[in-house]
Automatic annotation (TrEMBL):
This is Delta-aminolevulinic acid dehydratase. It is an enzyme of class 4 (lyase). Pathway: Porphyrin-containing compound metabolism; protoporphyrin-IX biosynthesis; coproporphyrinogen-III from 5-aminolevulinate: step 1/4. Belongs to the ALAD family. Homooctamer. PANTHER family: DELTA-AMINOLEVULINIC ACID DEHYDRATASE (PTHR11458:SF0). The gene is hemB. It catalyses: 2 5-aminolevulinate = porphobilinogen + 2 H2O + H(+). Keywords: Heme biosynthesis, Lyase, Porphyrin biosynthesis.
Length: 329
């Protein structure tokens, strides 16, 4: 039956009806906050390319995370800003039990034992060449890198990290990491694989945050995915799940909502997206220029991920979004 008997606007006429028929919800439970941890004492430095985002030293983490915990954000993701003198061609610092990410994890668990911690597993924060794996004859080599990633993952699990998140895009790494964790008694340590991670132009501000952009020799197109491909993402997800991934991620986020939707349709598994640094920087600069409404845009950008099929989103807006959601209650 058509107009005038059917009027779609009737269910939009007032707030309570709009709430009753809303198809998708966004809550604090859907937010993961990525943080940058740096060396030194009493450090709290701004990241120019990401207005409002900071690097903090381990001794400042308790205060830095206090509001996030109070707001009920379930998990954070740690990214270490490794000092230059600790970076080498082999990424040896990744296996150091007293490296930045491990020290940060122990400090966080001491103060906030119920806060979930996600640890990035890849070698780019630790190598002097900026790549996610080992290099031989100018090639990022796959199989030799796997052995290092497995030891890196076990090292993080020993420090108390709950979820290992391999972001390197080496073939077979999920299976190798899963076996290594199980052999060391970490059967309950989960793996959130960066299953579909694209060779994107949206990572620039992140590399500035890690102070690693100038070190990268060449690009990452031999292991990160071509932005033109979609079917390939489904193959990557299927392989990671077969190897033992508990959760999967698509990265970047908003330019790849179609990938998120395809993965969600094909695989009924926990699915996450990373609203990456370039996405954040575009919105943050638009806010500063007065071009967009800050609160409305933050929530609209995040509900898009939920609508596409994500169970949760890694976003630098996590604390601010949680604050807005609490105020709306």
């Amino acid at each position: 039956m058509a107009f005038p008997a059917t009027r779609m606007r009737r269910n939009r006429v007032d707030d309570f009806t709009r709430r009753l028929v809303r198809e998708t919800c966004l809550t604090t439970d859907h937010l993961i906050w990525p943080i940058f941890v740096c060396d030194g004492q009493n450090q709290h430095s701004a990241i120019k390319a990401m207005p409002g985002v900071t690097r903090v030293s381990v001794d400042r983490l308790k205060d830095h995370l206090a509001e996030a915990v109070e707001l009920g954000i379930p998990a954070i993701a740690i990214f270490p800003v490794t000092p230059e003198d600790l970076r080498d061609a082999m990424g040896r610092e990744a296996e150091n039990p007293d490296n930045l990410i491990c020290r940060a994890a122990r400090e966080i668990k001491k103060h906030y034992p119920n806060l979930g911690i996600i640890g990035d597993v890849a070698l780019d924060p630790y190598t002097d060449h900026g790549h996610d794996g080992l290099i031989s004859d100018d090639e990022v080599v796959n199989d030799a890198t796997l052995e290092v990633l497995a030891r890196q993952a076990v090292n993080q699990a020993r420090a108390g990290i709950d979820i290992i998140a391999p972001s390197d895009m080496m073939d077979g790494r999920v299976g190798v990491i899963r076996r290594a964790l199980d052999q060391e008694g970490f059967q309950n340590t989960r793996i959130m694989s960066y299953a579909a991670k694209y060779a994107s132009a949206f990572y620039g501000p992140f590399r500035e945050a890690l102070q690693s952009g100038g070190r990268l020799k060449g690009d990452k197109k031999t292991y990160q995915m071509d932005p033109a491909n979609t079917d390939e993402a489904l193959r990557e997800v299927a392989l990671d799940l077969e190897e033992g991934a508990d959760m999967v991620m698509v990265k970047p986020g908003m330019p790849y909502l179609d990938i998120i939707h395809r993965v969600r349709t094909a695989f009924k598994v926990p699915l996450f997206a990373y609203q990456v640094s370039g996405e954040y920087a575009m919105l943050a600069n638009a806010f500063e220029a007065g071009l967009l409404d800050r609160e409305k845009t933050i929530l609209e950008s995040l509900i898009a991920f939920r609508r596409a099929g994500c169970h949760g989103v890694l976003t630098y807006f996590a604390v601010e979004a949680a604050r807005i959601l609490q105020q709306q209650k």
